[in-house]
Design goal:
This protein is mainly alpha-helical. Helix content is 62%, strand content 0%. The protein has helices at residues 10-28, 37-58.
Length: 66
């Protein structure tokens, strides 16, 4: 059996964590209808990217100051 292998970059890992928390919160609160899991996941990913862009646009990281 061949196991899938995937390497995520640090930014991708952060977005994955954020999207996972958004999706989990929706599931826990009953906001995901039966059969709507895929749409909820896609929405959570899109929202996590929007959050990252909002943060990146409003905050300068230490490395950006150099």
């Amino acid at each position: 059996m061949v196991k899938p292998y995937m390497t995520l970059q640090p930014t991708e890992m952060a977005l994955l964590g954020t999207a996972g928390r958004i999706h989990a919160a929706r599931l826990a609160s009953g906001q995901v209808p039966e059969g709507g899991e895929e749409d909820s996941l896609r929405t959570a990913v899109a929202e996590s990217v929007r959050l990252a862009r909002l943060i990146d646009g409003g905050i300068m990281a230490d490395q950006e100051l150099e």
